[in-house]
Specification:
The complex is a heterodimer of chains A (about 100) and B (about 800).
Chain A: E1 4-9, E2 17-23, E3 26-32, E4 38-42, E5 56-58, E6 61-63, E7 70-72, E8 88-94, E9 97-101
Antiparallel strand pairs in A: 1-9, 2-3, 3-4, 4-8, 5-6, 6-7, 8-9
Chain B: E1 3-8, H1 12-24, E2 29-35, E3 41-42, H2 47-51, E4 61-63, H3 65-70, E5 73-77, E6 81-85, E7 90-93, E8 98-100, E9 103-106, E10 110-112, E11 125-127, H4 131-143, E12 146-150, H5 154-165, E13 169-173, H6 186-199, E14 202-204, E15 209-213, E16 220-223, E17 228-230, E18 233-236, E19 240-242, H7 245-249, E20 258-260, E21 271-273, E22 278-280, H8 288-302, E23 316-318, E24 326-330, E25 339-345, E26 350-357, E27 360-367, H9 373-382, H10 390-393, H11 410-413, E28 419-421, E29 426-427, H12 428-438, H13 443-450, H14 460-471, H15 492-501, H16 507-513, H17 525-536, H18 550-554, E30 557-558, E31 564-566, H19 577-589, E32 594-597, E33 603-608, H20 613-622, E34 635-640, H21 654-665, E35 674-679, E36 693-698, E37 701-706, E38 718-723, H22 726-743, H23 750-757, H24 759-766, H25 770-787, H26 791-798, E39 809-810
Parallel strand pairs in B: 1-2, 1-9, 2-5, 9-21, 11-18, 12-13, 12-18, 13-14, 20-22, 34-35, 35-36
Antiparallel strand pairs in B: 3-4, 6-7, 7-8, 10-19, 15-16, 16-17, 23-24, 24-27, 25-26, 26-27, 28-29, 30-31, 31-33, 32-33, 36-37, 37-38
Classes of the chains: A mainly beta (about 100), B alpha/beta (about 800).
The complex binds siroheme, flavin-adenine dinucleotide (FAD), iron/sulfur cluster and FE2/S2 (inorganic) cluster.
Amino acid sequence: MSNWIEIGTIEDIPKLGSRVVEGPDGDIAIFRNSKDEIFALKDSCPHKQGPLSQGIVHDKTVTCPLHNWKIALDTGLVKAPDEGCAASYEIKIESNKVFLSL
Amino acid sequence: MKEKLVLIGNGMAGMRTVEELLKLDDEMYDITVFGAEPYGNYNRILLSPVLAGEKTIDEIMLNDEQWYKDNNVTLHKGKTVVNIDRKKQIVIADDGTEESYDRLLLATGSNPFIIPVPGHDLPGVISFRDIHDVDLMLDASKKNKHAVVIGGGLLGLEAANGLMLQGMSVTVVHLGDVLMERQMDAVAGGMLRKSLEERGLNFLMSTSTEAILGDDHVKAVRFKGGLEIVTDLVVMAVGIRPNIDLASKIGLHCERGVVVDDTMQTYDPKIYSVGECVQHRGEAYGLVAPLFEQAKVCANHLVKMGIGLYQGSVTSTKLKVTGIDLFSAGDFIGDSSTEEIVMQDVNRGVYKKIVLKNNKIHGAVMYGDTVDGAWYFKLLRDETDISDFREKLMLGQAHLGDSGHGGHSAAASMSDDMEVCGCNGVTKGCITKAISTKGLFTLEEVRSHTKASNSCGSCTGLVEQIIASTLGGDYSASDQVKPICKCTDMTHEEVRAAFKEKHLTSGLDAMKVLDWRTEDGCHVCRPALNYYAIAAWPAEAFDDPRSRYINERVHANIQKDGTYSVIPRMWGGVTNPKELRAIADIADKYDVPTVKVTGGQRIDLLGVKKEDLPKMWKDLNDAGMVSGHAYGKSLRTVKTCVGKEWCRFGTQDSTAMGIKLEQLTWGSWMPHKYKIAVSGCPRNCAEATIKDFGVVAVDSGWELHVGGNGGIKVRVTDLLCKVTTEEEVIEYCQAFTQLYREEAHYLDRTAPWIERVGLSYIKEKIVENDVLRKDLSNRFVESQKHSQTDPWAERATGGVETNEFIPLKIIG
Ligand code: SRM
Ligand SMILES: Cc1cc2nc3c(=O)[nH]c(=O)nc-3n(C[C@H](O)[C@H](O)[C@H](O)COP(=O)(O)OP(=O)(O)OC[C@H]3O[C@@H](n4cnc5c(N)ncnc54)[C@H](O)[C@@H]3O)c2cc1C
Ligand code: SF4
Ligand code: FES
């Protein structure tokens, strides 16, 4: 049972960039890639809690700004050979509006 | 329906291609592998250590049968392919198994050459190629006493050494008068022979075999001239021949090997070939490094990406006999057009010879001390002009860059628990374990699996040594010029040239025009391309914030806890009460937890919250201060000393000169950070001789120094020249800076750049050529017109990308 929260429009998030939503349990990074897909991950790298929202976005990946781990935007899984997982959240888009489910 | 790929030959080159292919696309093909040998894929190179009793078969497996299952690859082990129907696209194995293919990969390796003397087919005569041969040898060594190895090349010596360690008395018979003559010159070969003799091997040099004697098993060998020696085992190691049996049978064009083009395609467009069976541009290779290069290219074409050409390789050799160090690469014999530098220390058992041609390394052979082999090999491949350090060449690369581990075969003498990489806390044991359990070969692989040398890189030399000592001769650094990253095959130089030629004004354009493999690039190439665009077209380039590292994007350094640091510029390190008061007030206003004087003569406000940044910048701007770019690949600081104004030794006004230089150069984007310093006399209190551009005042003018840095690997500057006037200092500084901006690779500081291109090259352009210098200097001034805008002011007042600093939404 999802509880959708509207967080803004697609245009609020820069292409190949991200914005932060301050959630009840810490920041959530909202990413937009070059295909305008939107993803949400906990804004904390599984390595040493680097802020993923500040990383470089490419394809469906974000590279953490602190030590360059690569995290898959859709699953939160860390790309090999590193290991780990960042919590990911569901996103839904309705006529340009972005909804997040916690 | 997926397409079908069939691989014939379950060896090192074929399986490496499959691995590379799976990395690129694991969906495209149904893959089937035929292997004549009854195992998964193993590391053939390590058969020598297995024979010597230093490793077990299990330890040398690369892909066991489980791997094939996990990767959905069908393995027909122990089945030899005997025919291929090219019309119907079917392969047929000796037991009747048939598989159809859309693409076929031939990687049948090579066959040991057996000299056709009488008796060559007697039981007890074997070659040294696969696990089966090693089993036979180990078995023979248990039952028998005497062995003869025919062939004093790399394989022969490794076989002889192994058999000797298994307790046999071994005689090596060699046709020539120098051992390993394809890898050694007479001196090194002689030293090698002497030390092998000391270990207990016997040699018969300049001797050819006439017959192998025996009725139902080997009993003796007879040589020309009549000498006979009794033996129970004969190992033939006289060379290999590309295995083209199958390829020629099906009428594929073969010469010495299966002929392929630069994409590893044979004359039948459906059939590709890699490995020792291949002949490429007339060459056949017998070492893994080039084969792995081939594998990479071939995989790329099999997944139809169609990028990357194999253009041949230069190889280097080492011998895997524990305790014997030898190395050779390139043409180490030389001819009338070459010169040589030779060093020989008989007592220490060390010999080095470097062959030079037109001031470049053409070849090298070393015995006894091979620590610098990798360095010479790199100079050879990069075709570096060595005239600037010719007199030091023999002494080796004084700095292996191992910060504190102290050079010479440090790797071998380290214990497993010793830390190799200080940044990531990686021990030697951790690295050797990863190499053997995960089957790693290259620095890149070790880096990505263990993180060793992945950060500051200062331990790279040491990690390379460990790889070399763990893998033995198997490790040879890749010999191709490095592409920028995995998204392309183009080098930094090629990309920089393309920006100019094709008038590319943004990184995104470049990726499109230059056929980038990935849609958005990656964190390695994007910042580089962005910089190249700005450097090539300062007035027009689109500076893409999304391609900048976070520090440059928000004009502050990200800290380990996600807060930021703010460093305002303090021109030449000079401040005043008004500025200090403003800084103090701002620190109070924003609750800055730490205020620190930096090593760059200015003040750092640490622990600032991201959302406070724009407000703080505005306040600093209002007090007359601008961004210090402490975060950027750009001009950082200009350090100065007090100079003539106050100091009793000062010869010129170094402080004023520093401030002037900082005002001219601030704001410029660079391939890496860039630091300047000006000292008022040769006491050099501003440490100008470890800066990218250093100025030291002397009575008669100014000395200009370039290419220094502190940091990871200290490098003292080279003296560029001496000038007399202030105008000259400025012009030279601008010209040098611009040359660096236009030509260095992104993320190279001036030191590695100068080491690559040579000081003479820099002098040619800046000191010896007035026109070029003036042009460069003018281009720098032009480019500065577009970059000397304070990013803080832009952000704080103009609202550029302000959304970067405010949350999208606050929930709960
Ligand atoms: C703040 C400061 C230390 C201090 O408190 O004094 C500092 C802090 C950092 N240095 Fe430094 N360096 C500082 C002066 C130096 C100096 C001294 C100097 O400039 O005279 C050096 C040695 C001289 C040199 O560069 O040649 C120095 C050599 C390095 C290096 C090694 C560079 C190299 O080429 O080997 C790095 C790593 C890098 O850049 O990749 C580095 C990187 C860093 C980074 C950016 C690490 C990072 O990526 O986060 C640190 C940022 C901290 C922060 O967020 O503020 N820092 N760093 C100094 C700022 C100076 C300034 O006013 O801008
Ligand atoms: C003892 C030893 C030490 C070595 N040391 C070094 C070293 O230190 N450094 C270095 O760089 N190189 C070294 N080499 C060379 C290196 O091992 C080879 O260059 C490399 O293995 C060649 O790879 P390949 O895939 O071309 O051939 P291989 O690895 O030989 O693989 C070919 C495979 O194809 C199979 N095959 C052939 N025909 C058929 C068929 N019709 N049907 C099915 N299967 C078939 C063969 O059985 C074999 O398993 C060494 C080699 C040996 C033997
Ligand atoms: S400030 Fe410089 S020396 Fe100090 S920890 Fe950071 S990078 Fe290392
Ligand atoms: S915290 Fe993300 S890579 Fe280290």
